[in-house]
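User: I'm new to structure prediction. If I give you an amino acid sequence, what do you actually give back? Let's try with this one:
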Amino acid sequence: MHVDMDAFFASVEQRGNPWLRGRPIAVSGSGWRSVVTSASYQARPFGISAGMPVAQAMRLCPALIRVEGNSDKYVETSEQVIALLREVTPLVEVASIDECYLDITGSLRLFGGAEALARRVKARIREEVGLACSVGVAPNKLMAKLASGLSKPDGLLRLTAEELPAWLEHLPVTELCGIGPRLGAALTAMGVRTCAELSRVPVAALTARFGIVGRHLHEMARGVDSTPVVPTEERPDAKSVGHTLTLDQDLHDREPMRRHLFRLAEEVARRLRKGRYAGRTVTVMVRYADFVTWSRQTTLEAPLDEGLAIYDAARRVFDGLRLRPLGVRLLGVTVSHLVHARDQLPLLPSLQRRRASVQAMDAVNDRYGEFTLTRATLLQMETRTRPISPSWRPLA
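Assistant: Good question. You get back a string of structure tokens that encode the predicted 3D arrangement of the chain. For your 396 residues, that looks like this:
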């Protein structure tokens, strides 16, 4: 089963503010150069979609209501949904903040079959969380995600193994998860537009064109997917943690850029500590006004999980860059080469005090919200909502 929350961020905002219900709204970051992270179904007929620049969305729909995102609210709501799904089966894989896969094989007899179980899930999410979702039920994850997408919004679709060939006969290959615009264009150039056409291309021809992905494409076209549902507690360790920030205006001076890097370093450090990670490699990304992007990194001897230490490393990398005359529109900080952090008390008193201050900040921010307590250097900066990583997972 694939459970996909409908227009999740926008729906959460409409749930909390009755005036927004039935209106075209777009959830975005605080800056006017940010992008749409979620659009309500009333906004979508205007062509507004996630990833679109806010300015373009406002041109397409002058009546669009722009709502600044609140990541804490979305995380809390997502965790409510996940807890509810775990009452159905312990085999819940969180794919992102608004979608989950469930292996319901062992739950079918308990709940009277797949469709009865799906209806129960939809009803409970609506009653207890106040939101609509779309549910797909199928023999595997690939087809379940296809089914939930085809049933949007607020739908339920079950695809049986016997029905799959008929469904796939005329289905465009770009409807399958994993086939994006570039891969779709490459297949179109080969004369392949539907899943049925793709399934008839010899595997040798696909592997010659796409390498190892070719065999996977052949299986996808026939609705074959052997990927198991991996519960959150069994997920592989993260490889990196990072954040980027699109600036409200292009910057040329290094000092304001350093302050933004400091803020990003604190956000990355906060996520590292929540996941009980530390990392040795710090990467700085700079994107210019013409969208040319550069990144540089440094690898340290000891792993880091504190914002100040990460910022010190990022600043050294940044100060070593020769900036182009063009203004900078985006900055990013990433920490990689991660290890599991140990709760080991530093030996030096100065480091002990520093660690204690970080732990105190974490305790306050856990209770009252991100950046309630922060460093004085960051007070002069506009408060921004904590971004949600595309690879977001619950911590437990």
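You can read the tokens as a compact description of the fold. Here is one thing that stands out. The mean pLDDT is 87.
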